[in-house]
Design goal:
The chain is α/β, with parallel strands linked by helices. It has 10 helices and 19 strands.
Length: 352
């Protein structure tokens, strides 16, 4: 588990690659990497935002971290009070601040999450919790997938609490299969200090169709998220990204890599041009987390089934601005039994 107390786990040398930085940020929970020299003098800071820009600009991941790091980061000093550090982080709109001594040697790290409670966010959050979970076999015969426990809590409760930790308090749960069990567990949300209402699907409406059941139109962008995801993503970063790009629909995407276990051959008719041994292909996948402007709801028709990719195609066809938000934080879809067991193993290290 990465925490502020063992910040040394996110320290790296300037000879490291962007790929190395991605691994540090991905495996840790601080969402930052700190670059130091052999004497531990701070040289720079890399956040997931820096790597996101590198991915968008197609910078090679084998490049040195020096190409993307901020080499003049804001820092605090050992003698600075918590109030001064908190004020500086708010003024500069930063989430992490390295602590250095008078010689510029890195001695610690403070995070905004550690110093302050999140601001309340009125944006709605719609969690899709109506699926059968048939790929999980007997695990969902008596229990709906969102109530399967990862560690000590149901996966849907972990998702709910993650949003609450970022300041969100208005939730809709879209339910169908064994909906009474989900409603009994979460009730009206008062046990968590939030408001929970339910969208009850009479039939299978897909990953977007139940949005047509919202009793009123939201006034601000709202989140939609699959109810079977384990992640440490920062939802406020998505909201800021969505607003900065003036998007009507934002799709979160996770970078994945796949090694082809054979030598891949290139030919021109009969002529052999090249053989590439076990190449690695990288691509972005749909992470099942979305941010939509209310205008998007006008594209849904009644209680007809609609999946989220189809809704995004409609948004694009209408000429609305869309965006893809690449992120590096921990993410796992527990839709299959192997992934569910992996999530149970990861829980203690990543979330506690």
């Amino acid at each position: 588990m990465t925490s502020v107390e063992n910040w040394r786990l996110v320290v790296m040398q300037p000879t490291a690659t962007i790929m190395d930085a991605m691994a540090v940020i991905d495996q840790g929970a601080l969402r930052v990497a700190l670059v130091v020299d052999e004497s531990y003098r701070l040289l720079g800071v890399i956040t997931d935002g820096d790597i996101r820009r590198a991915l968008i600009n197609r910078i090679e991941l084998t490049e040195s971290v020096a190409k993307v790091m901020c080499n003049r980061p804001f820092v605090a000093h050992l003698a600075d009070s918590q109030e001064k550090i908190f004020s500086l982080m708010n003024a500069k709109t930063i989430e992490h601040i390295p602590i250095v001594n008078d010689g510029g040697i890195l001695v610690g790290l403070k995070t905004l999450r550690e110093l302050a409670r999140p601001a309340t966010r009125d944006n709605w959050v719609v969690l899709m919790a109506g699926g059968l979970g048939s790929r999980l076999g007997p695990l969902t015969k008596e229990c709906p997938k969102p109530l399967l426990k990862v560690g000590s809590k149901p996966i849907l409760e972990l998702i709910l609490e993650s949003y609450i930790a970022h300041g969100y308090h208005r939730f809709y749960l879209s339910v169908n299969y064994k909906k009474e069990m989900i409603q009994d567990h979460f009730g009206d949300g008062s046990d968590w200090g939030v408001t929970i209402r339910y969208l009850e699907e009479e039939g299978r409406l897909g990953t977007a169709g139940s949005l047509a059941l919202l009793p009123e139109t939201p006034t601000e962008p709202f989140f939609v998220m699959n109810g079977d995801l384990l992640t440490r993503i920062n939802f406020n970063d998505i909201l800021q990204f969505h607003q900065e790009h003036q998007a009507k629909a934002t799709l979160c995407v996770r970078k994945m890599e796949q090694t082809i276990p054979y030598g891949v051959v290139q030919t021109d008719r009969h002529q052999l041009l090249a053989i590439e041994e076990k190449p690695v292909h990288s691509y972005f996948v749909n992470a099942g987390i979305y941010l939509l402007d209310p205008v998007v709801l006008n594209l849904l028709s009644g209680a007809n089934s609609c999946d989220m990719p189809d809704l995004f195609r409609l948004v694009i066809e209408q000429g609305h601005e869309t965006a893809a938000f690449p992120f590096l934080d921990y993410w796992l879809d527990i839709g299959q039994r192997g992934d569910f067991h992996q999530a149970c193993q990861d829980y203690t290290e990543i979330f506690q």
